[in-house]
Amino acid sequence: MTAEVETRQAVVDAAMHGQRLDKALVAMAPEFSRSHLQHLLEGGHAWLDGQVADSASRRVRLGQQLRLELVPTEESQAFRPEPMALVVLYEDEHLLVLDKPAGLVVHPAPGNWSGTLLNGLLARHPGAAALPRAGIVHRLDKDTSGVMMVGKTLAAVTALVRDIGARDVQRRYLALAHGQPPQPAFSVEAPIGRDPQVRVRMAVVAGGRPSRTDVQLLAQGDGICALSCKLHTGRTHQIRVHLAWRGLPLIGDTLYGGRPALGMVRQALHATELGLAHPLTRLPLRFECAPPPDFAAAWAQVARA
Q1: How buried is 228 (Cβ within 10 angstroms: 0-12 exposed, 13-18 middle, 19+ buried)?
Q2: Sign of the C-alpha dihedral, residues 250, 254, 260, 265?
Q3: 141 assigned to active site
Q4: What is the pLDDT of residue 2?
Q5: Cystine design at 249: which of 72, 148, 257, 304 (Cβ 3.0–4.6 Å)?
Q6: Calculated CA dihedral for residues 290, 293, 297, 299, nearest 10 degrees
């Protein structure tokens, strides 16, 4: 699907004469931000007298022919259908449960305006376009693999959101972390909010949102531990933040102090189990999802240590 490109043309008049080129473009396309128009300039989408003009500070002169291609912003193209192969664990008319691969972004955001799970859902079933976030009710980080659920109808989305808020959805993860746990089983109950020093990170902060993670040690060796983590809440980066706060940063999670190890260069986190009541029938459902090869190989090295 090719984005439509609108072309606008103008002749520099007396009022425009002597202005900077970027300011002249704002007059031609006032509905766009100046930064976006400057981006179009840098991309070679503006012409003066038939010649590409890419200098924002260039002054325009009376009588010059000015042409501009209004290429849509990346963000404006984010919510478009893009067919993609999905590993489906369960599907009916209301609910979709899938195995998300590591590397797949769930929702469009700066730097990832296309190729996301949301784009794939829009292509998979027409009803997704009428749903909030195409039916996505919870997210896995880009480099986290594993099981996640999606609502396919508004009634299902509403029920799933309600059940998550009521903590009636069970989610268990497998994690590989540096360090040694304080005991075989423990809980981390600490509020999570935006890191005031590094805005791309979350952190345990006073005034953050209440958060709880239950952790169980399954194996350890050579300074690395294999953990099972149960979420009671679903804050952004929750397991990564809670484990790092307890001195157990995930393997490969450089954002929170982890390092690559055991062949893992991404964060070693896998959503392995999901339990819920069907959003419409309320019948209990449980899904288990085996780790992908990179995680399974790293896990095996710790398990047999």
Answers
A1: middle
A2: positive
A3: yes
A4: 44
A5: 257
A6: -30
What does the alpha-carbon distance between residue 268 and residue 240 come to, in Å, rounded to a whole number? 10
Both tokens of residue 187?
A: 């809980």
CB 271 within 8 A of CB 173: yes
- Rounded Cα distance between 209 and 193, Å, is 6
Locate 261 and state its tokens.
């190890």
Amino acid at 54: D
Catalytic residue among 22, 141, 143, 294: 141
| Contact in structure between 105 and 137 (CB atoms under 8 Å) | no
Start-to-end C-alpha separation, the chain: 51
Distance CA 277, CA 203 (A): 31
| Residue whose token pair is 């006073």 | 206
Convert the pLDDT of each residue in 70-98 to its tens digit: 887 666 667 889 999 999 999 999 999 99
pLDDT score for 1:
42
Measured in residues, the chain has a length of 305
d(CA 24, CA 288): 58
